């Protein structure tokens, strides 16, 4: 995670961002700290990267790369405003012992690349280039399934698609169907026949931008119907309000990059 010390909205690269409206960095820090504390209370091991001045979107750590089996594929941003975040996160991965692979194609990390079971679901349409999907498959030696986003409000896969159970299975994800083109909707229906289908109201508060360990789902406090659906399915729901960071177009998952080490022993067979 990355503390939003320099958070503000000074440019517009997604429809949520309104540079003409002032942001409250202290409030963003406060809300972010609550998310950090929530993760710690749940027992997660949280590492921090130093925020850099001039990179107001660096708080959205999910975009910093993708890390699977101890291998870190660096991010390569679509927009010049965020370009310097790629090397910043790459430096962190290197300093922390990950096997770093430099991306050649445009990919915005876990914003568009989500691991479900053994498969990586990869978004495209706004940010990550389809050519990056092949690069991801080659880098991690995993099946990559491409999904095309069509609604500019849901410009990253993690704004329209949530992993509820990292182990996978027919009901292991939630998504907003209208955010995808018809072929992608067909793929999702086929792969996840028991998915939670989320409505526009919950998606519009970035409800799908949640983080789950398979049991607890940390989600936007405003996504009430989604939370009720999750509880009905046996998940423990943990609401957190990130309304100030939503003004940059990001939520809980955006602020969270998962660091997956090399799996050994019993874990490797899951
Ligand atoms: N302002 C950032 C951008 O447009 C928000 C990124 C949100 N991150 C995410 N994983 N969806 O790039």
From TrEMBL:
Molecular function terms from GO: dimethylargininase activity
Enzyme's top EC category: hydrolase
E.C. number: 3.5.3.18
Keyword annotations of the record: Hydrolase
One Pfam entry name: DDAH_eukar
Transmembrane regions: none
NCBIfam families registered for this protein in UniProt: DiMArgaseDdahMtb
Family statement: Belongs to the DDAH family.
Protein name per the record: Dimethylargininase
